[in-house]
Every structure is written in structure tokens, then in C-alpha cells.
Amino acid sequence: MSTPDTGNGAGTGATVPVAVRDASADMGSSSSSSSSSSSFLNLSHLADNPMFAGGIGLAGLGAAAALARRGVVSGAQVLRRRLLVNVEISRRDPSYPWVLAWLSLPRESQGFLASRLTRIHNLSVATATASATANASRHHHHDSGSAADGPTHASFFLQPGYGRHLIRHRAGVYIAVNREKQSSSNMTTGEPHETVTLTALWAHRHVFEEVFLEARALAARANEGKTAVYSVQGMGWGPLGEPRKKRPLGSVILDEGVKEAVVADVRDFLDRQQWYVDRGIPYRRGYLLYGPPGSGKTSFIQALAGELDYSLAMINLSEVGVTDDKLAMLLMNVPRRSILLLEDADAAFVNRRQRDPDGYSGGTVTFSGLLNALDGVAAGEERIAFLTTNHIDRLDPALIRPGRVDMMLRIGEATRYQAAQMWGRFYGDVDADGTGCARFLARLEELGLIEGPRPEDVPRRHTSTAAIQGLFLFNKSDMEGAIRMAEGLIPRQFEPETPGPEATIRTKA
């Protein structure tokens, strides 16, 4: 049949030319795309553009400068670590005020350039006041005036302020000082945290030992003849005002032999530290002084601290806020060379027995907390602790057992021996033959205030050494007046106050 052949022939002739035309179009499109891609990747014309070349050059120079700067900074840091040495002192460190006082010392600068470089332009002032009779003249501060200016002296200490300073320690040795105030502060006092950084050459690194030794010696000279007193401030210890003049041990008159026994025991304890270590015994000693108020318990402890050249760390157990954990931490961090004084030891037993209905006894120390702090697992060593109380009957036997309290002494009412010794201290210069002392003691016997013969109708009474001292202070230069007023030593009995008819308050003595 002709139709299929014609159809096949016609179909073949029609399809071949179409395929050839499509291939030619594809080849033209491919060659066009290739030429455009090669022209896009060709950067030769960009290199010929001066603006593009300048930008590339500047970017390269910037990158090279950044790398060079980083290299210089890194090299400087390496050199600083290798050639310099820094010592940072925090305000919470005990040496901080010593170093500031040492920095405030005047120094001579030799040479024109050295004197200009070591000038301190930023200064801060610390002011201290003292009584007009106190000797406030020291070589490193200026006194504001004489006793006629007022009842107190003001002493101004100039020291380097915040910022960077350069000081000359000695010939060829310079120390850079950087005093900074931190952004954080003490949560209790609100004072900002401060640091002082001392920087010196690595070759002069041993100079810091000289600095701290000189600063410590300067502080020791400033506190010579004084007793530092520490109290609880926040969660730690802080100085309670300025150091106080040492009280002579002889100025505290206790009954015969009592004072000597305590001093001998404390000295023996201090001399036997290795003895305790060799036998595995905790190196601590506890004393309990009990007796009526005004008998001289706290005064004796203060005088003992001065005699031993120790400071005094005081804790009032009845103070609200002294909890068990806080007490344990405080006793673990007692300032070195300090006598620990726990006043009102019976306050913990009040908390033990008197609680609220819900079981809460207030934010104060408890009985078990006191025992653990004194002789528990967390108890510290190298400690001399004195406890005082006016009510020994309130103390639990668990507290006064050996190990917690090693020596108990009653500091009681004034005796004949104490009255005679106190008379000699106040009037010994005007009563050389002792006749006035004999008349005073006889008068105390008549009143029944000391042991000895007395009228039958006079009951046995008691008085305190604080009352006798008050009598002598009232009659400083009048020996006869002290004898005449001896009747004022009789303890008074007060009745409850009741309003009178004229709406006044009258008290019968």
C-alpha cells in the first residue's frame, strides 16, 4: 500500500530537519553562555581599575596593621609577664591599711625628672580624733591644733588616692601603685571593695618583702602601747574604733592570788604549744569568770590582753543576729594573737529554755550551737577563750566541763585586801604612813561591807570594787572626803516607781 510508505517517508523527511535545527540552537546557546561566563570570571579589567586596586591595597594595609597591633599587644603582655611582677592587696586583707600608711610616708626624690615622675597628684584623707590630753603627735601626720582648740585633736592622714602613682622606694627601685575602687560593695557596711596593686620589675621582686616588713613595723609602732579591740561586724570581725591604750595589769585589783593564778596559767599555755601537738590535744584553753556585776571581770581580761600584747575579740551572745552558724564561723576566724571574750554566756541557755509556741527562739545563738563552736568538730585551735556570766546557776554542766572550760574563777565582792590595795593606788602618795587606809577599812567594817568586827545590829553587806573606785574618783584629791562618804557604798534597795499626788515620780531609797 502506498499510504503507509508515503506516511513513513513523509514522517522521516519531516523529523530530521527539526532535530538538526534544535541542536544548532543548543550549540549557539552553549557557546554564548560560555563566553559570558569567561568574561565574568576575567578580573583583568578590575585590576586595571585604579579605584579597585587602591581599595584592595588599603584593606591589605589595614589587615597588616591589625595583625601588627595584635602582635605588639601580645608581645607587650608577654614582656610584662616576664619583666614585671604584680602584688594585689584587697581591702579585706589586714595588711591593706598598713600598706596605705606606708605609702603616705614622705620620700625624697633625687633629680629633676625623678621628682616630677614620682609626684602624687591624687590624694585621699583619713581623719582620726583623740582626746585633748592624748599625745597625737606622730611623724607621719599633721596635728590640727593644740588642746586650747577644743576637747579633741583631729589628725589627718594623707595617702595616695584612686588612680595610678609611681613612688621611689630606694635608689634605682621604683614601684607603680594602682589603687582601684571596685563596682561591688560590702553588703553589710555598704563600703565599696578596693584593691591596691603594686608593680615592680622582676629583678626587684624581693622588694615587696621589704615593703610589707616596713609597713608591719610602721603599724606596730603606731599601735605600740595599745590594745586593738575587735567586734562582730556583719559576717566577720572588724575593729571597734581606734586601738586603746593598754590597761596596766596592776590597775585591776582582784582578791589575793586570783590574778597571779590566771596569768601564770595563760603563760604556761602559750609556752606549751608543741606539748599539745605531740600528744594530739586540741591547742585551746577556756576560762570562765563569774560573779556579780562590777567585780572587774571584763577589766581584768582587757588588762591581761595588754600584758600579753594580744588584741581582744568580743562577742555578745545575747545580741540578736548571732546565730549558730555565724558563731561557728566567727570562732574559726578569730584574729591572730587575740583573746576571745564571750560575754553573757548564760544568754544561750535562756534561748534553750524559752521558745515561742512555734519552736522559734529568735535570731540568737542556741545552747547546742555554743557547745559546738567551743568544742565541736568545727571548733578552731590556737585559741584562748574567756566566758563571763553574772549567773553561773543558769549555766549547764555540759558547758563547764573540762575541754570547754578548763579553769573557773569567781570574781566576787570587794574584800579587805582589794579595798586596801585600791586605797594605796589612789591615795598612797598623800597617805604615806597608812593611817588613812586604816581608818577607811575600819569604817567599812562598821558598815558591814568587808570582813571584820562590826556592831551586832549591822547586817553583813557587800559592795563591789566598781563602787569603791567610783567613790575614789568622786574624791580624787580628798582622802577625808572618801572616808566620810563611805556610807554611800551600801547597796541601795529601790522600790517600784509610783506616781505621787502631784503627778511626780518618787522613789524610796
From TrEMBL:
Single GO BP term: mitochondrial respiratory chain complex III assembly
Keyword tags: ATP-binding, Hydrolase, Membrane, Mitochondrion, Mitochondrion inner membrane, Nucleotide-binding, Transmembrane, Transmembrane helix
SMART domains: AAA (SM00382), BCS1_N (SM01024)
Superkingdom of the source species: Eukaryota
Subcellular location(s) per record: Mitochondrion inner membrane
Main location per the UniProt record: mitochondrion
Domain BCS1 N-terminal stretches: 59-252
Gene Ontology cellular-component annotations: mitochondrial inner membrane
Family: Belongs to the AAA ATPase family. BCS1 subfamily.
Protein name per the record: Mitochondrial chaperone BCS1
